[in-house]
Structure formats: structure tokens, C-alpha cells
Design a protein that fits this description.
The complex is a heterodimer of chains A (70) and B (267). Chain A is built from one helix and seven strands. With 70 residues, chain A is mainly beta. Chain A has a five-stranded mixed beta sheet, with no helix packed on it. With 267 residues, chain B is α/β, with parallel strands linked by helices. In chain B, strands 3-2-1-4-5-6-7-8 form an eight-stranded mixed beta sheet, sandwiched between helices. The N and C termini of chain B lie far apart (47 Å). The chains are: A mainly beta (70), B alpha/beta (267). At the A-B interface, strand 5 and strand 7 of A face strand 5, strand 6 and strand 8 of B.
Chain lengths: 70, 267
Amino acid sequence: MKIKMNGEEKNLSQATLSVSELLVAEDVKMPEMVSVELNGEILDRDAFDSTTVKEGDAVEFLYFMGGGSE
Amino acid sequence: MTLTEAQVERYSRHILLQDVGGEGQEKILNAKVLVIGAGGLGSPIALYLAAAGVGTIGIIDGDVVDVSNLQRQVIHFTPDVGVPKVESAKNKIQEINPDVNVVTYQDIVHSKNILDVIKDYDFVVDGTDNFAAKFLINDACVIAGKPYSHGGILRFDGQTMTHVPGEACYRCVFKQPPPANAVPTCSQAGVLGAVAGMLGTIQAAEVLKYIIGVGDLLVNRLLIFDAKSMKFRTSNFKKNPNCPVCGENPTVTELVDGEQAVCDLKV
């Protein structure tokens, strides 16, 4: 399927997969450092397993970024 | 207030802008902005706000200047090593622009002082280096109804968003601080100095836009850039009804001090 991943088109071999599976497929090493947005809505972390990513969806992985002062 | 002749000359490049003009410059001169953290982000933020003529700039930071800060914290100079950052920043601001009234707080923000510190300001800028402070600033600004700019940098990356009352806040996107053991140690990760300047100047531009009431702020969107590929994007989102602080059933109703999961960029 084709999805929009962080603003760019992406082809995935799977026809559908859960957000948790997508995090694994995208090799996200620390999923606890990522907020996931699906079609403009921020997902609750406990919905990652039950939420399915489908053809045409727009997914954003938003990472915590902490630095600034020190 | 009316601009003096000297001010008309000093701020002429602002006044020439149709969106600013003398009226906008007067708004800037009357504005009160609090910069939290006089470090990598706070430096460019404070320098540009000072040059722009922001009437009152508050700076809160509990640290002294360390030699390893100088690679990116451009408001501090080599002879400032060992000097409190708020002192060092104040001196530079006053040299840039004597119009600016600088208020310093040599302290960190915590749950007991933050509401008291932010109450006198029109806008708050987050230039802190740890998630405990970032979440505290967000919660305090939401609770107090203050607009603020969030900023974060790491390695070659930066992100920023602007919160105004009634719109999405940082917790709408990042519900709670990451577990302390998941935070990549920035002492290992590092940061490109110029990335702090890139992000800090974006935050300063947001402050000035807010003050003069021009353009579209980074409200309900997160600007993310990667200086390595030099790609910028914005991720749009809505105010989250399940947000723990600004949502329909908030669970964060009072301020608490989180664990200081410090992202230490110093070493």
C-alpha cells in the first residue's frame, strides 16, 4: 500500500498493518520517544496496537526533542 | 507612546515593513517577553528580541557560563565563563539596545515559582533543555492562559510550535514526558551549534509576529527541520480532546515538578 509518511509518499509491501507494526517496520528503535499522528489526529499510545494504517493514510512520527539551554 | 527620532532611526527597517510600521514598533517597545533558559535557544532569542526593541525582556536561568556552552550559546563570550548566565545575557542585551528593560531571575523554573514569574509577561519562550521544564512551562502557560513558544533541538534537528490560549498545546502532541531511561543522552548525542541559532531565530520571529499581530503563527502545527538534509516540514494537528491539560477532562490541574530527565548537552 501507499501511505504518506512524514510528508513523503511511501510504498509498503503490507496491505495493512497496525501502528505498532509500522513502528517496527520503520525500524523505530525507541517507540516511547515518538508520538504518532494519523490523518491529523494524535493517537493515544495505548491505541497503537489496535489502530490500523491503510492505503492513502497520512502518518507522522513526531519525536521528542529536548535540548536547548544547557 | 510616541517614537523618538532616535527610535525611528534605530527601528527604521522594521518601520518600513508595511506589516510593522510605527504602530507595530510601538507594540514591540511595549511588549514584555520572558525567555526561559539563557542557553542555545535563549541566546539567539534574547539577542533578536533585544535588537528588535522588546520593551521588557525577562530571563530566567540558574546556571553559570561554562566553556562548553560557547560553541552555540552566542550571547555568552569567552570572558563570561564562570559568570551567571542571566548576568552575561543582561550585559549583552543592554549593550545592543539600551531601550530594553532586562529583568533577571537566577533560578530554574519549578512548580512553586513559575506562575508567579510568568504572570507579568505577554509571551513566554521555552529555551530549556529538559522535559520536566518543558512540560511544566506548557502546563503553567495553559493554566495561566499565556501564549508561549516551545522549542527543542537535538543533533541536527529542531522542532518548534506556538501555543495560544484555546488552541493545541505541547501535551496535545506529547502527552507525557518520555521515560527517563528512553531519553537519548545529549552528552553523547551533541548538537550542531548553528541548529540552535536556526531554531531560536524562528522562535524569536514567532514572538515578534505575535506581538504585532501579523501572519500565521505555528499554532496547531509543529515545525520540524533536519539541518543535515536541510528539509523543513510542518505537521498539522488539532487540539486533542484527550489532552491531559487542555482537553475536555483534564487530569493535570495543578503543577508538579517532574523528574529532571535532563538532556545534558554540556559534556
